[in-house]
Amino acid sequence: MAKKLIVTIIALIGIIAMVLPGCTAEPAPEPPFSAYIGSGQLDGKGIPEDFFSDIHVRKAFCYAFDYDTYIAEALSGQGAQRGSPVVEGLYGYDPGTPMYSYNLDQAVAEMKLAWDGQAWEKGFKFTLLYNAGNLPRKTACDMVAETWARIGANKKYLDPIDPDRFQISVQALAWPAILGKIFGTRDMPMYQIGWLPDYPHADNFVVPFMNSHGTFSSFQGYGDAELDAQIAAAFQDTNPVTQQQKYNALQQRYYDDAPGIVLAQPLGRRYFTQHITGFFYNPCESSYPGDIWYLSKSDNGDDIPFKNADSLIEATIGDAESLDPAWCYDTASGQQLRQIYETLIYYAGTSTGTFNPILATNTGVFNPTDNTLRFTIRTGVTFHNGNSLTPEDVEYSFERAMVQDRPGGPIWMFYQALLGADVWSYDDTTYAAISASVEVDGQDVVFTLAGPYWELPFKQVLCGQWASIVDEQWCIEQGDWDGTEEGVADVLHPQDPGETALFNKCNGTGPWKLNLWESGIQIVKEAYDGYWNGTPPFHWVIYKIIEEWSTRKLSLLAGDADIVYVPGTNFDEMDTELGLNSFENLPSLSIDAFFFNMAVAEAPAEE
Amino acid sequence: MGLRAYIVRRLLLLIPVLFGVTVFIFGITMFFSPIERASLYVRSARQMSNLPLIIETYGLDRPFWEQYGTWINQVFHGNLGWSAVVQMPVWDALWSFLPATLELAIFATPIIILAGIFLGSQAAAHKDRAVDHVTRVAAIGGWSLPTFWLGLVLLMIFYGYFRGLLPPERLSHPMNMLVNSADFVRYTHINTIDAILNLNGPVLLDALRHLILPVITLSVVDVAFIMRLMRSSMLESLGKGYVLTARAKGLAERVVVNKHARRNALIPVITVSGYVFAGLANGVVITETIFAFKGIGWWAAQAATRLDIAGVLGFALFNAFLFVLVNLVVDILYTRVDPRVRLGGVVQ
Amino acid sequence: MTGWKFRARQLARNPLSLAGIIIIFIFAIIAIFAPLIAPTPEGHGNPYLIPRDGYSATPQLPSEEHIFGTTEGQYDIFYGVIWGTRSAFHVGLVVIGIIVVVGIILGSLAGYFGGVIDEVIMRITDIFLAFPALILAMAIVTVIGPSLKSVMIALVVVSWPSYARLIRGDILQVREEDYIEASRGLGASSARVIIRHALPNAIYPTLIMASLDIGAVVLSAAALSFLGLGAPEGYADWGQLTSFARNWIVGPSADPLRYWFAVTIPGLFILFFVLGWNLLGDAFRDILDPRLARR
Questions:
Q1: Of A137, A179, A500, which to mutate for an interface test with B (greatest number of B Cβ within 10 Å)?
Q2: Are residues C132 and B319, on separate chains, in Cβ contact within 8 Å?
Q3: What number is the ipTM of this complex?
Q4: Helix, strand, or coil here: C221?
Q5: Which of A45, A156, A446, A523 is deepest in the core (most CB within 10 A)?
Q6: Backbone angles phi, psi at A447, to 5 degrees
Q7: In the complex, which subunits touch B with 3 or more CB pairs below 8 angstroms?
């Protein structure tokens, strides 16, 4: 009897407590098609699939975003508004591109013009999505939602007020799902995504954002053949003056068409301990501490303990994917390769358009009659195993990359630059063509470009880690491509990083050689005594992977790390710490933008 | 039935379990579209242009049975696949990350067991008095603590406030270099054991120093479990007939408790120890992440959230194997320890 | 009614059980009166989304306006922990409720009928138990998308096997008792026998385990939220609030414990909630189940 009563009471409590919170429910989950556009009609309870195809809608949203507050608060002040995706630091950047400003009157005026006034009269309702865990993106979504709610509740714009007229709800999704929605089901009305360049040329940004087959624009439903032609014309212009004019026009076009809300170009910061000096910033190194060759470490004070005098220790997030130069597309791998291998040329100082010779003795002689770019290869350079650098090594490095052609890798840049706009992979071309595109002539290496306009972009490509020079003899000994056409089948299209011979073995000409790679934990490099260009400033260079920010921070302040990756949210806090050398307002070659999906849930343009 | 036959039968039961587990995981992955699964291979924005190619290369749009078949075929050829989250074959990943977790388990388990036994018998011996209440609240309080919270607070105090006193990770930088150099042989990759085998004091001390915080975090949480078990088991055995007899015979209370009651009370605790160890050896995701003490728990969590299917499958297989093994060992132990129970006759 | 009074007195006499009851009672009051304690601002929408006072990343110290301070992103902690109490009850009770029901159904079927049904159900539970729980939960949440609902689904999927097993074991024991035989002899149907006779006796260990596990479920949900796999940012959930504090554990060197409130307060709420349920569960065990050698 007693037991029954107790059980009943428990059950009652349970039911009440279950029902009570459930009464104020969360939004219900998804029906088919696009769940994020409400009713799918312009009736105040949703938006039609092509809602954003009306330019007035887009402009209204551009005017209704508070850029300054976003930058000041969500990015902790470390951002600069831009008018188009072409950001500062890129070749072709136009600082004169107009930008939208936060202006509610204009926003309202534009919205009243949209869809013959129906958009304003009926209102709209849709869902914004962001990838969970990314607070700045959530903030951007929240700001959009709140601004429109405020417009509806403002007597100046709506009398009587109607706070529910413009309803935008915000929802989180895991990153894989977001990716699936952007590139697969295309059912998000607006989305945010960032972009990092392959090489710092305006074309590398314009194409994905504005070309009808571009990575982002094609899934937005933006772009047309005429615009494509303009973009190609800009890229192919060999006259720097007219080329810049064409890019100015394209950036202006982005402002005029407003296919997205350009949020900001992030400005980075670097935090070193007081013991590290010599840092300078090149925008191409926005993802890592840059050229550590110029750094030096000495006891500069007591605020932070001075440890490990012969080592440079970086604590950050993200492990390398592979140490094979032809494989790597990610910045973590790229950073390692920068220290272990070298390229023919590299950016000069803080510039992204002028170069210094490294393994070449000049920065390339271009011959317009046959579109060849000729480099003379330096003598007296040795690899870590003692072999000498020869032009044959250079030729092998490029041909090797092109016959490996790992799916989703960076080598498309070689194909495009050397073999033409139709060639995106090994399957689009022949071995003979690849072989002919890079040739040795005495102490020179001659590249045959697909067009004269490739001269500057290709040089930028040559600065990337995929253009690292490897030792042909050593590679063949490791089981890599043997240099013949018959041997191509053995190395072509590797699936997993571990399938390539150079996955975790390195033999470069750079100042440091690979000592240890403990996956997920650290990468240790040791100074190479035979380095051709001097003595490396550190005997040990260690890249440690510590995902937990607090741990990284404590490592920095305890002197156990010399530089750490600091998340944007904690910039202000780090500024109060003593004993740090910090650098701020470093323009990162990336852009964060909202994209308007002008054709929700439709298939992209045919290839 | 004979012991050998029993063991064989139990291990054979492993096979349908493994099959079920792997099919289930594959089933879950089928909820993801090919593009979502391709996100594992997209490490930078620029690769998004290549999604169709990635999908084709890795066969992500193949039907369920084809993908499963390919995987099973691989496994039978001894290849568990490639774990993209740590860039090594799955088999290597298991062996590479297991030592860290084992090290935590080896140190935490005895502390948990011994502390639990001690607290439990104290609580039982002084039932319903102050000692009982205090130890119970302390232990249950420990169990109620969120691990991540405790870990971060401990780090805050012992690594932050006391600058660098008890650091995270497994070893400090100089020791790490030493351990990976030619002067040190890594027999087991468990740093403390290797340090002893190499007769290297500094490495041993350094490793122990890095173990203190994670082990405390783990122990505080699990002690309650053992304590509670010990307490109830002690109470039960204290109420048994032979204890009454011992008291009647005039034996000192302490002797009664320690010699008779406790020994019998230990039985269920010992058997549970196996589960405690297995639970820890399984990987403790949060502790490993917070202290950067990277073991298989950390690896499995990375694989699960980033859709590294090969990694998840590999870990699930390991886990299932461990589960069956531990159950087997515990069941056998039980028969040894309690003669009333016979093999195969235990009602779970 | 003497049995009931006796038990209740026993419960009250034990200070720990009393403490448990009081703690849970206080939390229940907080949950029920949440709209009064932490009112939702006008026109805010979903009250489970914590209102944001600005967008800046640095947490604000406790002040008059924000009694417990704000998190990263300016979410009011006081509002979050009060409404988070509702989320905690919601998650704990719903998950346990479903698990118990599922466990009862499957466990009874397995235990009572035995044979093939038993084997099949036991093998299925084996498979689930052989799964690494947290990993399975993470995978499920990744599939469905981060939200409290997916956390609940994940925890249900991961936890039901132990209950099925427990019920099954109890039914097996009870099955052999005389009164069951008697019922069957009198012609009672299987369902009737299970529901009216076998279950009531088998259910008490289950209830004990359930009350203990409410705490465990809330902890697991908090852990998943901490890992970023639970409630989305800004949702009123204790685990989610703690995850906001993750980057602020160590404040500036001059003031390392500066953001203590962001870490400690949600953590304390979790701690006391789980503690209360654990004490309560212990209390239930002490009074409801004289057979102490359970589990």
A1: A179
A2: yes
A3: 0.80
A4: helix
A5: A523
A6: -100, 135
A7: A, C
Residues 6+ apart with CB under 8 A from A289: A270, A272, A279, A295, A314, A335, A563
Better-predicted residue by pLDDT, A364 or C2:
A364
Kindly state the tokens that stand for A240: 């720097």
Interface of A with B in 535-554 (CB under 8 A): 540, 542, 546-548, 550-551, 554
A521 vs B44: CB contact, 8 Å cut-off? no
Mean pLDDT across chain A, nearest whole number?
88
**DSSP state, residue C130:** T
Neighbour subunits, C (≥3 Cβ pairs < 8 A): A, B
B337 confidence band (pLDDT: 50, 70, 90): low
Which range of A205-214, B117-126, C195-204 scores highest in mean pLDDT? It is: A205-214
**E strands in A485-579:** 512-518, 522-527, 540-545, 563-564
Contacts of C89 in chain A (CB under 8 A): 17-18, 20-21
Mean pLDDT score, A326-331: 90
Give the separation between CA A449 and CA C152, rounded to whole angstroms.
58
Contacts of A194 in chain B (CB under 8 A): 45
Per residue in B279-303, pLDDT (tens digit) is 777 668 888 888 888 899 889 888 8
* A461, A441 Cβ separation under 8 angstroms: no
**pLDDT single digits (tens) C86-140:** 999 999 999 999 998 998 888 888 877 777 888 888 878 878 877 777 778 888 8
Q: How many Å is the Cα radius of gyration of chain B?
A: 24
Residue A311 sits at φ, ψ, to 5 deg, of: -125, 150
- Tell me, yes or no, if C145 comes closer than 8 A to chain A by beta carbon: yes
Tens digits of residue pLDDT in A79-96: 999 999 999 989 999 999
Token representation of residue C123: 């093998």
Evaluate whether C151 touches C141 at the Cβ level (below 8 Å): yes
Task: Write down the residue that tokens 């119970």 correspond to.
Answer: B136
d(CA B165, CA B167): 6
Which tens digit of pLDDT belongs to each residue from B43-94? 777 778 788 888 888 888 888 888 888 888 888 888 888 898 888 899 999 9
Chain A nearest C-alpha distance from C252 (Å) = 6
Q: How far is Cα of residue C1 from the mean position of the Cα atoms in its chain?
A: 31
Structure tokens at A148: 């429109």
From the candidates B37, B80, B87, which should be mutated to test the interface with A, based on the most A CB atoms within 10 A? Answer: B87
Return residues 194-253 of C near A (CB < 8 Å). 200, 203-204, 207, 228-229, 232-234, 246-253
CA distance B26 to B30: 6
Beta-strand relationship, A580-587 and A190-195: unpaired
Residues in A closer than 8 angstroms to B45, CB to CB, are 193-196
Question: What DSSP designation does A380 have?
Answer: S
Task: Say what the pLDDT of residue A302 is.
Answer: 87
Give dist(CA C97, CA C118) in Å, integer. Answer: 23
Beta-sheet pairing, A512-518 with B88-89:
unpaired
Phi and psi at A264, nearest 5°, equal -170, 155
Which residue in A3, A74, A172 is closest to C146 by CB distance? A172
Of B146, B304, B315, the CB nearest to C142: B304
One DSSP character per residue, C237-288 reads -HHHHHHHGGGGSS--TTSTTTTHHHHHHHHHHHHHHHHHHHHHHHHHHHHH
Output the pLDDT for position B322: 83
Structure-token pair, residue A284: 């191409």
**Is residue B100 within 8 Å of residue B170, measured between CB atoms?**
yes
Distance CA A294, CA A32 (A): 57
Q: Residue C250 is nearest to which of A73, A135, A554, comparing CB atoms? A: A554
Give the pLDDT confidence of A8-38 residue by residue, as tens digits: 455 445 444 444 443 333 333 343 467 888 8
Nearest of B33, B199, B337, C227 to residue A186 by alpha carbon: B33
Q: What is the pTM of this model?
A: 0.85
